Amino acid sequence: MEAVAVNNAIKGGEFLIRETKAQDIFIPEEFTEEQRMMAQACKDFIDKEVNPNIYDMDSMKEGFMASLMDKAGELGLLGVGVPAEYGGLGMSFNTSMLIADYVGAGGSFSTAYGAHTGIGTLPIVYYGSEEQKQKYLPKLASGEWKASYCLTEPDAGSDANSGKTKAVLSEDGKSYSITGQKMWISNAGFADLLIVFAKIADDKDLTAFIVERTWDGITMNDEEKKLGIKGSSTRQVFFNDCKVPVDAMLSTRGNGFKIAVNILNIGRIKLGVGVLGGCKSIIADATKYAKDRKQFKTPIANFGAIKHKIAQMATKSYANESASYRAGQNIEDNINALIASGMPEGEAKLKGVEQFAIECAIIKVYGSEVLEFVANEGVQIYGGMGFSEEAPMARAYRDARITKIYEGTNEINRMLLVGTIIKRAMKGELNLMPAAMAVAQELTSIPSFAEADASELFAEEKEVIKNLKKAVLMVAGKAVQTFAMQLNDEQEIMMNIADMIIEIYAAESTILRTEKLIGIKGEAACEVQVAMTKVNLYEAVDKVNRAGKEAIACFTKSDEQKVLLMGIKRYTKLNPINTKDARRLIADAVIEAGEYCF
Amino acid sequence: MKILMCISHVPDTNAKIPFKDNQPDLAGVTFVIAPYDDFALARAVEIRDAAKGKLTVLTVGLADADPTIRKALAIGADDAIRVDAKPADALFVAKQIAEIATQEKYDMILMGRESSDYNGGQVHGMVAALLGIPCVVPCMKLDVEGNKGIMHREIEGGKEIVEVAMPFVAGCQEPIAEWKIPNMRGIMTAKTKPLKVVKAVEVAPQALVSKYEAPAPRGKCTLVDAGNVEELVNLLKNEAKVL
Ligand SMILES: Cc1cc2nc3c(=O)[nH]c(=O)nc-3n(C[C@H](O)[C@H](O)[C@H](O)COP(=O)(O)OP(=O)(O)OC[C@H]3O[C@@H](n4cnc5c(N)ncnc54)[C@H](O)[C@@H]3O)c2cc1C
Fold first, then answer.
1. Residue of A75, A79, A89 with shortest CB distance to B181
2. How many CB pairs (< 8 A) connect A and B?
3. CATH class of domain segment(s) A149-256
4. ipTM value greater than 0.85
5. Which domain holds residue B69?
6. CA nearest to B7, candidates B29, B39, B30
């Protein structure tokens, strides 16, 4: 039975060729009372412990961040992803997403939190031996011990598997000696445990080790002076003949890179949803400021240009929220189905996420760019005060920037998501080829002039999404046909394709969320959500159009080019909407509430 | 040690409450534990922990108050009672509390000094009177020594320290304790803790709200240059017509 369920469930990347129904996605409005209480507790924690102490945090007051982590530990926030039998709370995937969302309002704290609970703790949860789990997880879940993750090196950043750190087996075979330099290590300043990646002999791939801070041979540089998240500890860590017992190896020899990649999948989607906390607090601050600040005898919130910004900030956040929880639930369902089919829980969790690696990368890129946009407009709404360290925007702007860099840069993630889709298509795991061929066929036929049934909710918008998918299948199909395996060297085109895919996923998720919400609350109560959905789609269509045209012009010629450009035009058609009125409606709702109120 | 902690289920203090047909329209409003009750609850949890006692929360309210009650359970109460009725007025609520406190003996009955919806601040006194036990309001510090409560009460220009034998009623306010954020485990176990729903005793309503009135909208404000007395006098005389 369950195996059947797995087969019928949507697969990662399959959204491109399979229509998803509104009732098949999860929307954040469906969180239970218990989950909401958890989210509220996180919000209260940030409001009570972080926000009043921003100065202490960002000036790296001795012991401050570690004590904040202790308090988070007392609240149980550090045990979210740790199974109950090891002292954690074993929460569901989407609940842990919700917590990441709300913790995301904590600036530097959210980095410390993510490094500890994500990349620091999860390698042991998923790959640790029973003994390692018993030994370390209760301490990590309570916050008694803090964790960090040492992958990056001065010469190995995006190319993480090229690290030079060595692990040499001792003659008696009882220990490894680790020597090497790690860089940009979050939480290094107060970590008690480090997940360290090193190479044994001439291995192609890394091996991971659990290293305790008190073991000999570990030194650190001073704190890095950073552009943002100034309160988060980031240091270089040196291992100089650091002896670690052989049983400190995590998983098996050469499996380290796989661990790194799999843990990063989770980190990516958590980062993508985690930006929401930041977005929401920026929107609340900027809206309040816009209501208070008067120029030309009028609160600036009354100006259309400012409303435009507030509407955009809310709309993009709404789209990101819709996409994040949709993917989060897909992952959760997949994990549950795998467990039900008999797979051990740890493995099911990894496989469950890996299946949606494409969506994880999409949400990482989309979310970080939404946050960047929101922070940038937040500064602009504050005007000169946006440039002042006395107002919250300067910090928010600086803090936002890191999200496009770590957990895999956005360039790496864009290439990864396109690369993964193509690889799965080649292997036959994703049935893209027939779909792409059907589009190529359709291109030579006469377009249908039938209008969508306007009486049906979002009928037109859904038709548009179908067409956008055709646009990307057309471009990607042609690119694969033209370059085959060499497409990896045509990064600009990969980026164009990635942009198209990302926009489609977010726009579709937004439509489905609003449709489902209307089913629950009725259309009258969802007027603003409908406006956000339409505005977002309007922009997505534009971006898909632009990226598609750009790509086509870069690798096709003459008649073929003409046909493809016609195709882009045909597949990115959208009836005009009054975006000014729609944005005013959205902005007025946010201004009235004084916060992101969806 | 048995503590009865009375909490009100009130609109979030930041919520804007719209009115419809001269009645507050609470449909879309978020409800919370009244802030003074929240402080008292935090202290009640501490006292219960120290004494290894039992802490029961009590709310007079309809089923929509259950999430608020579960929040109190998540914060640390052991069980809960909801008197299933709309809290009509202060005496109605006080009689419900007194009824519960008669059936089961409590060493202390705590509540906030006033709820943040109607800010009546009467229930504690009424409960104490109905039960014939002492009442201390506003209680800003509460310690337990043997069978006595030692409380600090704010008075005009200073502080009064009172010693009261149990059982007693206290209407509390900060800084009695730091309000508590429920921890994740508490939230996850809240739904497994007993929440008993009981019928209200009949009490004829004593006070009825006949009407709500919004404050008059603020008049328009004209700024006059500090040096321009003539203009000021002119405006006061001819526009405001107050001179
Ligand atoms: C504040 C902070 C905290 C961090 N925390 C941690 C941590 O806790 N643990 C840890 O291990 N690491 C951590 N990192 C490291 C982070 O993951 C890396 O900085 C990141 O992966 C990028 O690597 P890099 O800095 O070497 O940049 P590079 O890899 O040198 O990249 C430079 C630029 O080149 C681009 N680029 C690189 N390769 C390609 C390619 N193949 N194709 C196209 N473009 C490419 C990148 O996208 C980027 O724009 C942290 C970094 C920062 C800044």
1. A75
2. 38
3. mainly beta
4. yes
5. 2-209
6. B39
